[in-house]
Design brief:
By secondary structure, the chain is an alpha+beta fold. The protein has four helices and twelve strands. Strands 1, 2, 3, 4, 5, 6, 7 and 8 form an eight-stranded mixed β-sheet that branches. A hairpin with a 5-residue loop joins strand 6 and strand 7. The longest helix has 18 residues.
Length: 215
């Protein structure tokens, strides 16, 4: 059963769980930050995703992602980076008081730190957004109920030199497959919003599952 994560009580619980780590991590140097927008789409709790433009340079073009990007020296902290990038990509202005906190930082293949920032953005029609076509091809939302259904969850095992190395989650049967770093951040978010309702898929050697809060 999906908890009422968008209620005042649900928001307070999440803010409380993230408060200590947010205070510790938001001003730490990082390569990039993304916003995890928790919204209501036609009254249904959902997460907002983007499809990166196929015109972008680099290996992440055409991937599903959360809005965000590289930290700028002028940014006050990672929260400011996530909010600035979201406004630049989607034209969506999210006030800082709607930020609930910082989730566990993750690392890309180059070992660069990416910091997810969770925010409750309220009622939203993804089709009303005006994404920057140079950065975003499409904006879509996936209901939390969809993400929490076992038939929409998968995983990929990765091996190295013929031996198990790690497992990453995948979320299926939406407009686009959610995988990679975006799927890991989605997993952290589900663990926070719906404790006990989601079975973690992320596995590294000697590490069974993950916590939603930063370490």
């Amino acid at each position: 059963m999906l908890p009422d994560c968008l209620s005042a009580e649900g928001e307070w619980r999440c803010r409380r769980l993230l408060a200590e780590a947010t205070a510790r991590l938001r001003s730490r140097p990082a390569a990039a930050a993304v916003l995890v927008p928790l919204c209501l789409v036609r009254g249904v709790p959902a997460l907002l995703y983007t499809l990166r433009s196929s015109r972008l340079a680099g290996r992440h073009k055409g991937d599903v992602s959360f809005p965000g990007g590289k930290c700028d020296p002028a940014d006050q902290d990672v929260v400011h980076t996530a909010l600035r990038e979201t406004h630049e990509e989607l034209g969506l202005a999210v006030p800082e008081d709607q930020v609930w906190g910082v989730l566990q930082p993750i690392y890309d293949k180059s070992k660069a730190t990416v910091v997810p920032v969770l925010a409750g953005v309220g009622p939203l029609d993804p089709q009303s957004l005006k994404p920057n076509p140079e950065e975003v091809d499409e904006v879509f939302a996936l209901p939390l109920a969809h993400l929490l259904q076992a038939q929409n969850q998968g995983y990929t095992h990765f091996c190295q030199s013929g031996h198990f190395h790690y497992t990453l989650p995948v979320f299926l049967h939406g407009p686009h497959r959610v995988w990679g770093l975006t799927a890991i951040i989605t997993e952290f978010t589900l663990q926070l919003l719906a404790p006990g309702a989601y079975q973690p898929r992320l596995v590294f050697p000697g590490h069974m599952g993950s916590r939603p809060g930063p370490k």
